[in-house]
Amino acid sequence: MPNDESKPLHDLLAEASINLDASATSRDDAIRQAGAGLMAVGAVDAAYVDAMIERENTVSTFMGEAVAIPHGTLAAKDWVTADALSMVRFPDGVDWDGNDVRLAFGIAAKGNGHIALLSQLATVLMDPDKAEALRNATTIDTVYQLLTPDPDSDETGE
């Protein structure tokens, strides 16, 4: 499917990969929970979750706005079976190398699809109101509404 990158975020985020009331003892625990959401929908193998932590040890995926977007290394692409997102909300926060993280979005993408996913997600999270609403979301319906593009916005990201 060459056009996976055009899939909207809400289509890549299955209910089974959303946890709105999690707690984590560490950054790595939070990453494992985001990875578990990707595994729950069959998007990745367990080895991909290890690669997510490996990547984090090299380059932080903390994005600001109390959000991190952990994803695997380039070498981990072989362990991705489908493009998918997971979302884990930590109401009490988790220490992410000195940063307070309330949301972790796990990303799995075949090929270069992660670039388009990161771009779409960044577009949503750059809106401080949407980012705050996602941090406070307590229902899956709210998450889907927030990740659905506004009809009058430019979907292409250009």
What key attributes describe this structure?
158 residues, alpha/beta, Mannitol-specific EII, Chain A, 5-stranded mixed sheet, 6 helices, 5 strands, disordered N terminus, disordered C terminus
Helix content: 25-40%
Averaged pLDDT: 87
List the domain count as a whole number: 1
Oligomer class = single chain
Give the structural class: alpha/beta
Order of helices and strands: HEHHEEEEHHH
Beta-strand fraction estimate: 15-25%
Query: What strand line-up does the widest sheet have?
Result: 1-4-5-3-2
Distance between the termini: 22 Å
Describe this protein's structure:
- With 158 residues, the chain is of the alpha/beta class.
- It contains six helices and five strands.
- The protein has helices spanning 9-12, 27-40, 46-58, 113-125, 128-136, 140-147, and strands at 13-19, 62-64, 67-68, 84-96, 99-108.
- The chain is globular, with a radius of gyration of 14 Å.
Briefly, what is this?
The protein has 158 residues and is α/β, with parallel strands linked by helices.
Fold blueprint:
Elements: H1 9-12, E1 13-19, H2 27-40, H3 46-58, E2 62-64, E3 67-68, E4 84-96, E5 99-108, H4 113-125, H5 128-136, H6 140-147
Parallel strand pairs: 1-4, 3-5
Antiparallel strand pairs: 2-3, 4-5
Helix pairs in contact: 2-3
